[in-house]
């Protein structure tokens, strides 16, 4: 069988491309909203412009005319939303003449920092606690050329060292205290509004350090001030139940959750996140690891979308709070990272398994498939 | 430190968004070029519109005004170019009323088939040879909800079974013999032209089954017929030296290469690929695993781009053939899959390693960093 397109079909083609493919990266696309000048040397991997994917199975499960979308930020160049902040942080470091950057991270931040720093011709130092054996995401940073130092101590000691290094040596700190990161991250809210034509009713988002919820709110409010959206969303922040300081109202000393990207007991952006919740009439809620994993599986097996477990907290939270949604509401769930970042979870928590040693015979195979 | 944008800055913002974020998926974007009608039920994850990233380190390494870009198709929704073909194949299966699809694949095809089939509400069967233990990419398919059957036999037996199943039972075959897949894949060439304004001088591409080189050429020639590009590229196909039937001029019985996605000894699209080479005045060349790994590391550590080893064959080939490039040439290297698909290679082949057990003391750490 071959497929052919007739000349008649081709002659009906529009002379203009209706959809542009020339996305220049988020700094160039949203330049007027960002702290860059005409002479700023933009370091970009053409991040941003990630798909806002309709989630028909979720919409149907909720009913009442509710429309659910997921903002799939795992399709950024290094596989997470951290690229949005890192293109800004590394661009500003480059502008300031930096030759090296540093961060303490065992996760998505280290990968993003390494990729953008190396692209800019800088050294990228990553400090981690010693004894951290699970290579996982760190493998990605190493391949990008990160120089990884494992110190004797815990993660707080690593944070202390990178801060001291940046104060005493010519290395720029790109941990979440770097203010340019939230500037870059806010562009995700711009993209949501640019696609929907307005802000959604609810913005559901996983909350760890609370940087992303802060950045989204910055984005929505700046767009609102400019008349780009008529309304502001209710910001719904979801924390893993074992790492939920905003629900406890105080830091959690030993946070525990399968959702490692939000396993944070003492969020860096505490006051900002509380302000977001108040100004947006938003809410913080906990979701259990069980609920997170169910949402993780549902997204993959019903919507065809593979995210990190932490990302699925936004969908788990939506499903838990769905009764409070207005009819006909528009909801956006933020999926912060690509499921490929964490293949061991896919193996461990898939509900399907492989049927082994099946005879290579048509009837046997058909019978195994239920025919 | 805080970053603020002044009201004056904001008032200079354009009232229109210059860059659209409303990409509707490749079928909708290139509808006149594809075998769909107004009533075709499009199954999409908003695939396509992947970034064409400038590669300044490669351009500089080659010199003579040559401009190198990489088409990073690893940023498709399931992490590889297979999504382009699968949105078409599953859409057409859905249109024909299919309730299930089937393929034989241990790699990117199985993940794409599962994601799109499950999104369309179909069952997704994946048949693999028994004893295949490395879960890797298969884990992704399982999480998407694929039903995986491991048969007693080799990969050819698996191919035979899925073909027979599709002939005798109501399951649609979505292996590479499905003709709609190349239709979807050709859109990558459209995107390249839409960004560059014309076809490149060289299109460098990894060659395994030779479906993608065939599809790109279809795309370039269709666009050329429509006057969308003034020229056609020289198609440069690169095969792993241990799996290079087009260089040998005959099938390779036991292909061997680290680049598993192109470890194919008897390509399904043999005649088509030879025709592409002849019509484009193109060339096939081998690249060694060593050269592939060097390109893989270079892309990550100098360009900030993490691809599958097989993808890096296009860059390895370019570097090997660079002397034959005209001055000022424009080159596009196709990167077919996301490096996150294959984290074990990142761990094994990174040139960097972790410095362990470093005392958590400023001077010690600084000294380790070379300050």
TrEMBL record, chains A, B:
It is an enzyme of class 4 (lyase). The keyword Transport does not apply. Residues 101-144 form the Rhodanese domain. One of its GO terms (biological process) is L-threonine catabolic process. GO terms for molecular function: L-serine ammonia-lyase activity; pyridoxal phosphate binding; threonine deaminase activity; threonine synthase activity. Its cofactor is pyridoxal 5'-phosphate. It catalyses: O-phospho-L-homoserine + H2O = L-threonine + phosphate. Pyridoxal 5'-phosphate binds at residues 108, 208-212, 336. Gene3D superfamilies: 3.40.50.1100. Keywords: Amino-acid biosynthesis, Lyase, Pyridoxal phosphate, Threonine biosynthesis. Its EC number is 4.2.3.1. It holds the Pfam family PALP. The modification N6-(pyridoxal phosphate)lysine is found at residue 82. Pathway: Amino-acid biosynthesis; L-threonine biosynthesis; L-threonine from L-aspartate: step 5/5. There is a cross-link at residue 164 (Isoglutamyl lysine isopeptide (Lys-Gln) (interchain with Q-Cter in protein Pup)). Catalyzes the gamma-elimination of phosphate from L-phosphohomoserine and the beta-addition of water to produce L-threonine. NCBIfam families: thrC. Belongs to the threonine synthase family. This is Threonine synthase. The lineage of its organism: Bacteria, Bacillati, Cyanobacteriota, Cyanophyceae, Pleurocapsales.
